[in-house]
Amino acid sequence: MTENAPLAPLTTLRLGGPARRLVTAHTDQEVIAAVQAADAVGEPLLVIGGGSNLVIGDAGFDGTVLRIATTGSTLDGTVLELAAGEVWADAVATVVLEHGLAGIEFLAGIPGSAGATPVQNVGAYGQEVSQTITEVVAYDRRAGELVTLTNAECGFSYRHSRFKAEPDRWVVLRVRFGLEDHGGLSTPIRYPEVARHYGVEAGGRVEVAAAWNAVLELRAGKGMVLDETDHDTWSAGSFFTNPVLTPEQYQAFLARLDGRQAPAYPAPDGATKTSAAWLIDHAGFRKGYGSGPATLSTKHTLALTNRGRATTADLLSLAREIRAGVHAAFGVELVNEPVMVGVEL
Ligand code: EPU
C-alpha cells in the first residue's frame, strides 16, 4: 500500500492528482479483501485497470484506489477466460496468432485491461465484446458476494453496460468469451474501411491474423495504439461517444447540414448514429486543434491529447470548447465516453 500515490502514470492520458492510498491487488482474494475493507468503513473506492478510459481530476482521489493486477488466462477449445488484470491487447494477440481463433480479432491494439472490456462494451471495426462475452464473474458490493452474470444480465448496449450503469456496485474479476473457430479465418468483415484495405466485399473473411494486423495498422494511423514517444497517443481513445439521434433529432440535424453529407449508421429503435469525429471536424476543430498543452490529436479529431505538460483542467476546457462548438454548429450535444473521477464536463 502506498500513501499519497501519484495516479497520472497509471493513466494513458498521464493526468490526475494523487490517491490518498493506492492498493495493488494480484489475486481475486486480494481484490475482494481490499473492496470489503473499504466498504466496511465507508471509504471512497476507485477501481482502476489499464487506466485507458479514465480522466482523473487534478485534485486526485481522496480515498482508496485499487489497481487490479490479477493475471491468468485459460483457453479450453474456444472458451477463453481472462483475469480482469490481463492486458487486453496481449490476450487478443495470443488468441489470434497462437490459436487462430476468431471473435475478437478486430479488437486488436486496444489499450487497457480485460476486466474493463465489459464495462464500456469495448468495440471497434465491427466487433463489440458483447458479441463474444458469455459470462462475467464479478464481486457484487451491494450483496457482498461473488456472482456470475450471463451475457443478458450484463445489459450491454453501445459503449454501455450494467457495470457502467451501476458504477459503485460491481468489481469485475474474470471475463469469459465464447470464441469461434473458422479454420483460421476471421468473422465476416463488417467495417468498410477494413474491407477496402483487402479489396474484399463487406461480409467477406480473411485470415484471422491478417484481420488483426490490418486493424493494428488502421489504429496506429489514427494514433489509437499506445506509443510512449507519440503524444497523439496520450489520450483516452475516443473522448466522446458517437451521438445516437432519435428520428426527430436526426431530421433537425439534417436540416442544419446545408447539403453536407454526415456519416449515418442505423441504430436500434429507428435511431441513427452519426460520427462525433465528423461533427468536431466540421464544426471547425481540425486535427491538431488547440494551442495549449492539451490539443486534438493530429491523427484523429475524436482523441483529446496531453502534449506532455497538460493538467486535467486544460483537457476539460478543450473538451468544453469542442462540445459547445459542436452544439452551436449542429445542435447536437456530445457526451464524454471516458469515466470522469472528481470532475465533470
Ligand atoms: N472523421 C473525421 N475526422 C477525423 C476522423 C474521422 O471527420 O479526424 C470522420 C470520418 O468521416 C470517419 C468517421 O469520422 O469516417 C468515423 O471515424 P472512425 O472510423 O475513426 O471511427 P470513430 O467513429 O471515430 C469509433 C469508435 C472507436 C473505434 C473506431 C473503429 C466510438 C466512440 N469510437 O470511432 O473506439 O476504434 O470506431 O471502429 O464509438 C474508443 O471507444 O475509445 C475508440 C477508439
TrEMBL record:
Keywords: Cell cycle, Cell division, Cell shape, Cell wall biogenesis/degradation, Cytoplasm, FAD, Flavoprotein, NADP, Oxidoreductase, Peptidoglycan synthesis. GO terms for biological process: cell division; cell wall organization; peptidoglycan biosynthetic process; regulation of cell shape. The keyword Transferase does not apply. The active site is at residues 159, 238, 337. Pfam families: FAD_binding_4, MurB_C. InterPro entries: FAD-bd_PCMH, FAD-bd_PCMH-like_sf, FAD-bd_PCMH_sub1, FAD-bd_PCMH_sub2, MurB, MurB_C, MurB_C_sf, Oxid_FAD_bind_N. Its main location: cytoplasm. GO terms for cellular component: cytosol. Belongs to the MurB family. This is UDP-N-acetylenolpyruvoylglucosamine reductase. It comes from Kitasatospora viridis.
